[in-house]
Design brief:
two-stranded antiparallel ribbon; 3 helices; 13% helix; 173 residues; 10 strands; mainly beta
């Protein structure tokens, strides 16, 4: 994760990337059960691309498992079903949340629980593939109608790629 998220809760850096140990499977060699390295998780099951530095105005698909309460007290989601919304991004700012360079997706009624879900640029439902270009960070009630109606993400910059690259290059053996 970026140090500014960990240190001061700066929503411009509300993202993290995780490295995992290589997978393994048990095999029998010379009559003994031994672990055999099967490589990186992404090499075995696939993964999405990552893109940074894109302007706003792009069509994205956001995904998450919302479960929280809406401002009106209703709870339309149970957190067990993947939800999505699509639209064009625009810039947003919220100084009280240390968000100077945020990206907003209107028309998205996600509530708490969807945090960290991906924003996919160039997403194709037929393949399930696209490029990670943001994450669900903050929910918004822009029209003050007691329901969340937008979600925002930090803007993915070259610094985001540096954080990703650090995790991707961590020794995982």
């Amino acid at each position: 994760m970026h140090e500014d998220w960990a240190a001061i809760g700066d929503y411009d850096y509300d993202y993290a990337f995780v490295s995992v140990h290589h997978g393994f499977r048990w095999v029998t060699e010379d009559g003994k059960a031994v672990m055999k390295d099967v490589g990186r998780l992404e090499d075995n099951v696939g993964g999405q691309g990552l893109t940074v530095g894109k302007k706003t105005g792009n069509q994205v698909a956001a995904f998450g498992y919302p479960a929280g309460v809406q401002p009106d007290g209703s709870q339309p989601f149970n957190g067990r079903t993947l939800k999505s919304c699509e639209g064009k991004t625009k810039r947003t700012v919220n100084p009280t949340r240390n968000l100077q360079y945020g990206v907003l997706l209107s028309g998205c009624d996600f509530s708490a629980g969807a945090s960290g879900g991906p924003w996919m640029l160039g997403y194709r439902a037929s393949t399930g593939l696209g490029f990670l270009n943001g994450i669900n960070s903050l929910t918004w009630n822009l029209d003050a109608a007691a329901k969340y109606d937008a979600v925002s993400s930090p803007y993915f910059t070259p610094t985001t790629f540096e954080v990703y690259d650090q995790a991707a290059n961590d020794a995982t053996t």
